[in-house]
Amino acid sequence: xxxxxxxxxxxxxxxxxxxxxxxxxxxxxxxxxxxxxxxxxxxxxxxxxxxxxxxxxxxxxxxxxxxxxxxxxxxxxxxxxxxxxxxxxxxxxxxxxxxxxxxxxxxxxxxxxxxxxxxxxxxxxxxxxxxxxxxxxxxxxxxxxxxxxxxxxxxxxxxxxxxxxxxxxxxxxxxxxxxxxxxxxxxxxxxxxxxxxxxxxxxxxxxxxxxxxxxxxxxxxxxxxxxxxxxxxxxxxxxxxxxxxxxxxxxxxxxxxxxxxxxxxxxxxxxxxxxxxxxxxxxxxxxxxxxxxxxxxxxxxxxxxxxxxxxxxxxxxxxxxxxxxxxxxxxxxxxxxxxxxxxxxxxxxxxxxxxxxxxxxxxxxxxxxxxxxxxxxxxxxxxxxxxxxxxxxxxxxxxxxxxxxxxxxxxxxxxxxxxxxx
Length: 422
Description:
By secondary structure, the protein is an alpha/beta fold. The chain folds into two domains: 3-227 and 407-421, Rossmann fold (3-Layer(aba) Sandwich); 240-405, Glycogen Phosphorylase B (Rossmann fold, 3-Layer(aba) Sandwich). The chain has helices at residues 12-15, 17-27, 41-46, 74-98, 113-123, 152-182, 189-198, 240-247, 265-279, 311-314, 327-336, 349-358, 376-389, 391-405, 409-421; strands spanning 3-7, 31-36, 50-53, 105-108, 127-129, 203-205, 222-224, 253-256, 283-286, 303-306, 320-323, 340-342. Helix 4 (74-98) packs across helix 6 and helix 9 (265-279) packs across helix 13.
């Protein structure tokens, strides 16, 4: 038995997969704590894990795969960098507090890994990086936060290395403060990262090779082990209002943007309602950070607005899913075997959207920024019709779902943990 601390920070999609990993480790006899933001305390405790708080507002500038947004213009990028660096700096002190004297192993998310490495050094304990997205440079594709456009093998590797240096800059202040707090000698974020790379430590990525085959030019030890699914109770059911809605007609289309598009709910709700009506399909709108709502009026009786609901239970009941293509939602839609209409907003989302389209399980991605254009309703309507009417797209989604069902990402983490513990 090992006392394990998992650290994860950011939006729901950055945190929830680690509840599934933690629950699997707990079932195997390990003591597991998950350190994250207060907003997810209930999620962590419901999975049977000890909750430990991390500071920082997950709605602020978030680093890592799910937080490196790309606003237009150099001023926007500088602002984002300052927000992300402040978020990370606040996070650093919390990570130092989260570890207890009996902590024997650290499991680190993309966002927390550059800080957690210093904590592991100070405590002299092993650690394991568990990112949700590919981060190591490769010739196979450009960095996932670059927008997804390939620059050729040399260009992809070069921009991949540049992306790591940008992340080093984001963590520079936090690294300095954290090492001083832990009594460690000064070291730059870049030096610490390169030391970890040189050591050849294993890194287990929580995505499936169904979507992203492991790059052949990755070093030994960088592996894609399959998705980690958010924990939910074995007897969990959809809320009665959702079950009643599903029973009242044909399968609807799910529409949600997760932690994206905050404050844009009224406009998006009207746009989505108009497109669903034109496509002649029912819809379930997940409010999310955007605040989607069902417009009033009898003409919207075929729409339902919901809050949080397990995608594992909801998505298989859908005719299609429309979402921002965060890593977790992308995987959930593929797992359900339903077609996707990708509406990527920023960061890694265009990458996942392009992957779904290339697999033949999604329509052509609609960049979120284009939902403000005059033809947005017509374009979304066309995509909805394509997604719900094409049987070949659903067949390919079903095939991909069968392949995902054969994977055991959490089991791979358990095996690695027990190897480290031994």
